[in-house]
Structure formats: C-alpha cells, structure tokens
Fold each of these.
Amino acid sequence: MNCEEAKKLIHAYVDRELDLVQSLELERHLTDCNSCSKEYAGLQALRSVVGSVYQKPPAQLQNRIRSAIRKEVKSETRPRMLSWRWIGVAASIVLLVFLSWGLFRVLSGSSPDEALAREVVSSHVRSLMASHLTDVPSSDQHTVKPWFNGKLDFSPPVIDLADQGYPLAGGRLDYLNNRTVAALIYQRRGHFINLFVWPSTGERERPRPETLNGYNVIHWYQSDMSCWAVSDLNAEELNEFVRLLKSKSTS
Amino acid sequence: MFKRSGERKDEAELDQIKREQFELSVLPHLGAAYNLARWLTRNEHDAEDVVQESYLRAYRFFGGFRGGDGRAWLLTIVRNTCYSWLQQNRPRELSDSLDDAAENIESDAPSPEAELIKTADGKLVTQALEELPLEFREILVLREMEGMSYKEIADMADIPLGTVMSRLARARKRLQQILAPTVAREA
C-alpha cells in the first residue's frame, strides 16, 4: 500500500469502518511510514480533544422533562378506548414472529450465501472509501464494455439506464468469491450502486433482497451470471433498479 | 357504568406503561440529546428548550418506535427539532449551507502535529468547534463524541454515504487547522 491509498483509508481506519484485510494492510503501512503514522496520531489526538468537551446536561433537566411528559399525558385527548388493547395484542404477535424468526436464523447459522453477501457489502464500502470507485469512468456502455476485454475471462452485460434515472458511472475490476469479477457502478441522486457480475449458474432467477449492516443487497442469476447489486440507496429504488436491469437485458 | 370505569382504569394503566417504557428506553439518552442540541444551537439555555421539545415530540411518536437503537432514534428527532428551531430563530445559520462538491480544498496542507493538538485546552476546543459551519460541527459530534457509524450518520442526516466520508474528512481537517495555529500562539 502506498501513501496515497493509505491517506484515503486512514479516516475509515480510525472510525473502524475498514474490514480486517484492509486494516491489516494499513497497519503494516503505518509501521513503515512516518508521515502516515503522524497523520494517524493527529486524528487520534483530534478525537480525544473533541471528546473532552462533551457537554453534560444540567441536573434539573431530567426532572423538567419528566414533568413535561406527565403534563402531556394528562392533556392528551383519549379517543382510543379500544385501540390500546389491540395494539397490545398486535405487539405480542409481532414479538412472537420476530423471536421465532430470530431463532430460525440462529439455528440455521450463516450460509455461504450470507458470507458472500458480507463480502459484497465490504467491497462496496471499500470502493467508496478508497476513491477507487471506477477504473474506467464513463457513462457510455460502449466504452465500459470493451474495457473489460482481455481483463476478464467473460464479458459482463453492460446496460445503460440513464433514461430511467440510473446513469452508469463506470466500471472496475474487483475480487470476490475467490475470483476476479466485473463491478459496474451506477448512480442515483448521489448514491452509488455497485453491481457485481461473474459467471455462475444458480437456481435463483427471482432477485432476493436483504439488508446487511444497513446496506441493501439484492442477489439473482441471469444468463449464467451471478449478479449482486448493493447500495446505501433505499430498498424500493434498488428493487426498481434490478427490475429495470432485468427487463432491459431480456429485451 | 362499571364497565366504563373499568375501561378508564385500563387506559390509565396503559398510559402509565407507555410512559414507563418511554422513560426506560429514551430517557437514558438525555446526555447525548443535550450534547447534540448544545453544539447545534451553541447555547445552553436554547439547548435545554430544544431537548425538552424533542422529548415531547419523541413521546408523541413513541408508538412508531419499533425498538432497536433508542439513541439513534432520539438523536434524529433532536436533530430535526434543532433545525426547525434554527430555521425560526437563526435562519441565517442555515442559509449558508455547505458545498459538499467543493472537495479537498483543505486537504493539501500538511496536518499539524498530534502533540500540538493535544495541548489544546477545553476552552480553545470549544471555540474552535463553534467556529465550524453547522454541518461540520454536527458530523464531528455524531462521529467523535457519539461514535456513530457512517451508515447511521447517513441515515440520520439523509445524505449519501460518500458525502458522510468526505464531509467528515473535511471537518477534521478544518478543525485541526483552526486548532493548530491557536495552540501555537498560546504556547
């Protein structure tokens, strides 16, 4: 790792947002590089001085708030004779479903798919941090697609969705699931979507959405490719993105 | 008649349960709420008013709170209440909003020495933080004081993740630069 890369990752390192591999690489660099380790010490020092001016509330504020809430409770109009009881019933059902789902998750353990999903999320976060989002920055599919020639042993489908509000930002090589994969980057109102593609066959034609560490991830297979879309964009728009992608690639 | 009064009693009990649950899950985060309000309004008395208003709002919305991180939930409400308060009382502070696109203007200058920064006392740090634009102050409070993750901050401030990262880096740089010459002068 060189200094330029290290300087970009160092904030995420201080904030514990790097994955293990990257953290270790950066730590190795810090032991060798005086200038970067100074930068690191500077960030640590900043955190400790900022933390030292944490403002404590005055002692009476808690009581003031308690009594304000009591007043609020009394003044609330109450047209909800029946509803509270039903809310109670509904809450117990929700809790039951939630608990049994949790139990199911614990018993079933983490699948290889889930480990891969974590890898995908981690790649996404890393691509945003290291300002290594694109190797070939272009909104033109006819520039991006040929760029992958000779760099991959397959040709990823590159689809233009600019008219639908998801312009292409470029392409990149990435490493996932123990192989080199194509990463296509799309944009939506300042949010980036990483679309990872590599050859693989699987049953799942219907996209499966999930949420990991707050990121939305969707996985599906199409034309013998394994596809993963990941973003901090909301779930609806990411679903819409995948739907458009699928409809465009079959037409 | 009996039934009616019985129902009324149920209701009073339910109100009490709601209030107890609220006090149990939200009141412990008073410190974080006050700290955020204090830095966003830059004034103790205003912070107290904003925090009280936030708690009343939180109580009204408590039915919509689905468990989980009570602190992030409360801080989102405190942040929104602060912004409406600023809008009403100091609209000028909101008007000169930050240009997130103007990236890395500050980042070329070398960082000041850690040892130098560490000598800054509380008064200097407070002054330096208060000098920062609202968005910088806010992100430093959320990250450096509350230890919130990039994703939590992105959700709370409703900004993309990339903006959280670049804004945080710029805010840190700016604070270091305000602190370093001040400390050097005092020393």
Note: Chain A has a mean pLDDT of 86.
Amino acid sequence: MIQKLKKYQFLFEELVKRDFKKKYKRTVLGMAWSLLSPLLTLLVMRLVFTRFFGATMEHYTTYLFCGNLIFACFSESTALGMTSLLENADIFSKVNVPKYLFLLSKNIQGLINFGLTLCVFFLFCVLDGITFTWKLILLVYPVCCLILLNIGVGLILSALFMFFRDIQYLWSVFTQLLMYMSAIFYTIDQYTYTVQCLFLLNPVYLFIRYFRKIVIDATIPTVWFHLLMLADVVIVLALGCWMYKKYNHKFLYYI
Amino acid sequence: MEVLKLENVSIRYMTGDFKDIGLKEYVVRRLKRNYHVSEFWADRNISFSLEQGDMLGIIGTNGAGKSTLLKAISGIMEPTEGTVERRGNIAALLELASGFDGDLTVRENTYLRGAMLGYTRKFMDKMYDQIIEFSGLEEFQDRQFKHLSSGMKSRLAFSIASLVDPDILILDEVLSVGDGAFKKKSEAKMREIIAGGATTILVSHSLAQVREMCNKVLWLDKGRQIAFGDAEVICDRYQQFLDGGIILE
C-alpha cells in the first residue's frame, strides 16, 4: 500500500496541480471566489433569518457560519467528485492508473477551500465574542469525518455517474433538500423528541452539531455521538470502496 | 525465458441498451423486461507466449481486436476469460495523442504525462529539456496544448513516451508519428529501445514495417486468432489474404 502510494505520488501531485489550475483559469479573483461565495451566503442568511431565529439566540452569526461551513464543504466536494471519473475517462482508458486518484484530487480542491473558509470562520468567532478553549482541538475529529464522508460519497456518486448521468440532477436536488434538513439557520429545539432523533440520521447535521457544541457551548458531545458519526462514515466509505473494486474494470464499457 | 503468456484470452464487450439510456428509461425497461444487453466478443481464445527480446507484430484488418488485446495485455482491461501472465514492468503507448489536457501548457502536460507513465519527478526534471528538444517544441513550451497542431501533439507524446525503459513495450500505431524528418528520428529511437532488450509488441498496418522489425507475428481477424508464428511465413499469407488469394471462413 505504502509502496503504491509512493509510486503514484508524483501523478497525484500533478493531478492536483492540474485541477487547481483549471479551476481558476480566467477568473479575475481566482481563489478569492472560494472565500467569497460562503461569505455571501452567510451575509444573506444573516440578514434574512436574524429576525426569525436570531432574536432569541446568542452568537447567531457563529451558529449560521458553522452550518454553512460544513455544508458548503460537503456539497462542493461531492459535486466536484461526482464528475471526476468521467472527466478523466480519456486517461484511464489509455493508461493503467488507480481510478480513485482523480476523485482524491478533486477532494483536495474542496479541502483547500474548506481550510480557507475555516480561517475566516475563526476570525468571525473572535468578532462574535466567542471565547476559545482547548476543546477546539477536538474539531479535528468532525473535520476528518467530513473528509472521509466526502470521499465515500464521491466514490459512490462518481461510479453511479458513469452509469447514469441523471445522478447529477438528482444529486443537486438532494443536496438542496439536505440543506434544509441540516438545521443550518434554525434550531431543532421546537420539534418533538422523535423528530429531533430523525435529524441524527443526517451525517452532515451531526458534523454541524459537533462544531456548534464545541465552538459555541464549549461542551464535548457524548461518546455515542462520536460513534454515530464514525458509523456513518465507515458505512458510506465501505460502500464506495466496494463499488470501485467491483466496477474497476467495467467503467471502461460505459464511456 | 517467457516474459508474456496469454492463455485462451477472450474479451467481451457489452453493448446495447445500457449505454445511452437514462435512469428513468433503465427502470422502465427493466420493469417491462425489455432491457437488452448484447455481447460482442472483441477477442476470442487468443493464446501465445513471448520470450525475452521477442518482437511481435500484430496484424489484421480494422476491427480485428488488436487494440483491445493490447489493453488486456497492458492491464487496462481484464480479460473476460483466460489469463494474461506478465513478467516485468509494462509500458503501453496506446493512441498517444489522446489523454492530454488542452487547457494546460505544453510544460504542464509533459509532466502530467510523465507522471502517468510512472516516471518520477526527479527523472522528469532531468529529462524535460531533452524531451522538448527531441519533439522540437522549444518555442511552444508555455503555450496551451490545444493550440498545437496534431502533428506536434503526437511528436510530444512520442518524445515523452520514448524515454521508457520497460521489460515489455507495447506500441499501437506509434511509429507513424509526425512528418518525414520526425518519423525517421522516432524510428531510430524506437530501435534503440528495442535493441535494449525489451520484448516489444507492435501493432501496425504497414506490412513492410512488420516484416522488417518483427520476428514473430500474430494475425487476428474479427477477434479470432488466425495464425501465430514466424514473421515471414505469416506475412506472406496475410499479403495473399489482402490480395484476395485466401478467404477465411
């Protein structure tokens, strides 16, 4: 495994570089766009929803930002990842390279954007009067989970996308719905206990909730909460790897 | 020593309904039991083996299954039936000019292609100037790749690929690259690699080239193996076939 990683390290670096250059080609602001778009979303949400939800809640900006930060990373990485395999059909039909490299390269893109937005997030936290504690270190856990979830979902989507191009449209509808179900701008307190439990089925919501607990409340979620997140990630990732393994040599037929 | 051994290799392509239909159509057809997948055998029961230093020419008309067979040998495809045994590392130069990225510059594409072929960064740093010089693209290094002519593209592709030092070298129509001057240069380069002791597989429509370079020949027709063996004998028969002297069942 390690030997394989070493062997393909150069290719991986070149792929990341290529994706990066192509993404920001002929854009005036370049990478600034990646920062600007979550900030604009944040601004709009803050202006619109403060009247409804923000009036009674402390640190509403941070609350919103937590949601936006995680959700934007999820939706961007998965949407980018979905097309990664088909886009590179020209390459893997001529050269024998591991196909997951294309997806990982796209995920690195998403991760860079996430990292940048995260810096701005902490800046906003300071402005919002949040006190930082040592517990912030724990944010590494949901971030790692999120990265792995993105990869897992990306594996599944990019494989499905080879077979059915409809997935693209279905997924964009699905992410839209998921956004409303992730409690980004509202709290789930006003729902009954059963409904609140249903929210826990949504892994993206779990990550957002984890962030909020640590940053705003400075409390550590329970062990069960950690395990629930891990379970989601493992299931999705396993399914994705299984699909890639099973269809590794069959993708070729669908180009 | 046997370097490459194919035993009863068959490759099946699936064609038919599944390709261009969307999800809705797929479900509807599945429900109506109207979902048809047809098989198409691109290669059927191909068996041969090569010793170290052998130079194999694969001949056959269009659609004989030559390129598909090469994909199986290089590991891009898995044979549906049969086994491919390889010893040593393989370099496959298939349809060279494709797989480049039009938006990147020549320099970036060179590195990317080098990475795909399994070179290291150090190696590419060292060889980069040599590649550009060989392809004659010194003035185009920072141009976008899509602005090159198709001849230039193949020249670059060949120049990168010809640095390989493989045990098994697979060439699909790559010897007819570029203009006259470059063709000579590329042929000389190819011979140099082959002389280095690599086992080579060559697909070519030029019978003269096959006769001249290869010691063994595999003749395919519509996926079937017509003959495998000594180059001269089979080339003569193939020539006869092309002239209409032999009719295959």
Note: The radius of gyration of chain A is 19 Å.
